[in-house]
Amino acid sequence: MISGDTFEQAREHLRRNGQDPTLNRILVLCALAESDHPLTARQVHERVLAEHKLNKVTVYRILDLFADTGVANRISSGDRSFLYCARPGRWRQGHIHFHCTSCGQVQCLDKEGLPFDANALADALPMDVENIELRLDGICLKCKAGRNITGS
Ligand SMILES: [Zn+2]
Ligand SMILES: [Zn+2]
After folding, report:
1. Got the DSSP string for 16-41?
2. Residues, Cβ < 5 Å to ion ligand 2
3. Which pLDDT score, from 0 to 100, does residue 143 have?
4. Residue ranges of the alpha helices (H) in the chain?
5. Ligand 2 centroid to 144 CA: how many Å?
6. What is the pLDDT of the chain when averaged over all its residues?
7. What is the pLDDT of residues 29-47, one digit of tens each?
8. Which is higher by pLDDT, 81 or 74?
9. Phi and psi for 68 in degrees, rounded to 5?
10. Residue 63's closest CA among 83, 81, 91, 78?
């Protein structure tokens, strides 16, 4: 079940980005918000279906709209498919992605607590920075653990 908080934050996030907060859009956004990693359109569809009947084409259309209007991030996953993620109520100015070069998983990272100052970076540039997307490449915790076991 979607929590009331997530639902409200999703509604607010849509409004802030100039989108009508229709039920379908809110449900798609909630599916993204409740995942700690970016999802494929198919995964989003499966999660929404658990709550509400919605056809695949509608989900794809909503995800395109989200990506084009800045409601959600669209990330290339490398094999020509896209991953989507959104963090309403948390990182207003985008967030950080960690891409594992071993298993290919992409994770959304909480910017809080990391020594990265988005405002300082934006202030240091003469352009108007509206969004910051940071991508880190490396070995994820799971793969690291696997390597340590086989390496010892
Ligand atoms: Zn990995
Ligand atoms: Zn993300």
Report:
1. HTT----HHHHHHHHHHHT-SS-B-H
2. 85, 108
3. 95
4. 4-16, 23-33, 41-49, 56-69, 118-124, 141-151
5. 21
6. 86
7. 999 998 888 999 999 999 9
8. 74
9. -70, -25
10. 83
